[in-house]
């Protein structure tokens, strides 16, 4: 494992040293492809079974699950405590939470599982602390709460997003509109219906060569598509998960500072200690989970509005309902 991490950092060093221009784009494409292949080894470790492991792997309950990801002591457990049957401990020292602590809340008739997770630190994806187990749980959630300390939200958000991106989790993004069809012969052909502003044909060629894709049609319909998005399609194991950036501890800042925080997209400022703005957080959670309520109507009787069946959008066909 450490050799994979070492190889990754060697490639990153080389990329940092290489200036991006026409003459280097093939080489940079090769490096990016090599990096993506190495990162795959971190997502699917050969040694272990691949799951999160003891203390982390909890049974899924309810219609959807929300995972709490954040640095230590940002207040994840304080927020989940009222919902967790077993009391997730919250305390002033870092790494208070050491395993996945499940809780549950009921909203609009739906049971939603919430998962308190240990704090993660930079380098988590490469095996620091319990980061890899935490991220493995996050990969399986329907929504991720990135819990941040209001005093330094932006830098921490960048680091955490990078940790999750590094293992194939894409937050608040859609799968790129790119199709790659392998063919018997005919070489590579790249077609696009949008201008290619961030990508070079040489980069695409280099990447395809690394993936031994000699004959293929690559159709790009994704505006401002990047080589990383092409790699996402080639790798195929990406997960696209909605996320809410929970800016905690607003009790510690002024109203003026709070106004600025509202400009951060996908964010909800709260105080878990003083229970401020939790209602807005729950509403945003509900919207992001995109749950649909279905009311049953017994034949010849009025519909039953008290006990809706809740389904996830995209999984709300009559078949899913019958299940
Ligand atoms: N001022 C303030 N303090 C808070 C708030 N929420 C949590 N804290 C404090 O922050 C400290 C850490 O809280 P925890 O809930 O244990 O944080 P955590 O993110 O679960 O920490 P780990 O499990 O160690 O990763 C505790 O001392 C809490 O009382 C808040 O909204 N405002
Ligand atoms: K703590
Ligand atoms: Mg905790």
From TrEMBL:
<keyword id="KW-0342">GTP-binding</keyword>
<feature type="domain" description="OBG-type G">
    <location>
        <begin position="64"/>
        <end position="290"/>
    </location>
</feature>
<dbReference type="InterPro" id="IPR006073">
    <property type="entry name" value="GTP-bd"/>
</dbReference>
<dbReference type="InterPro" id="IPR031167">
    <property type="entry name" value="G_OBG"/>
</dbReference>
<dbReference type="InterPro" id="IPR005225">
    <property type="entry name" value="Small_GTP-bd"/>
</dbReference>
<dbReference type="InterPro" id="IPR027417">
    <property type="entry name" value="P-loop_NTPase"/>
</dbReference>
<protein>
    <recommendedName>
        <fullName>OBG-type G domain-containing protein</fullName>
    </recommendedName>
</protein>
<dbReference type="Pfam" id="PF01926">
    <property type="entry name" value="MMR_HSR1"/>
</dbReference>
<dbReference type="InterPro" id="IPR012675">
    <property type="entry name" value="Beta-grasp_dom_sf"/>
</dbReference>
<dbReference type="InterPro" id="IPR031662">
    <property type="entry name" value="GTP-binding_2"/>
</dbReference>
<dbReference type="InterPro" id="IPR045001">
    <property type="entry name" value="DRG"/>
</dbReference>
<dbReference type="Pfam" id="PF16897">
    <property type="entry name" value="MMR_HSR1_Xtn"/>
</dbReference>
<dbReference type="GO" id="GO:0005525">
    <property type="term" value="F:GTP binding"/>
</dbReference>
<dbReference type="GO" id="GO:0003924">
    <property type="term" value="F:GTPase activity"/>
</dbReference>
<dbReference type="InterPro" id="IPR006074">
    <property type="entry name" value="GTP1-OBG_CS"/>
</dbReference>
<keyword id="KW-0547">Nucleotide-binding</keyword>
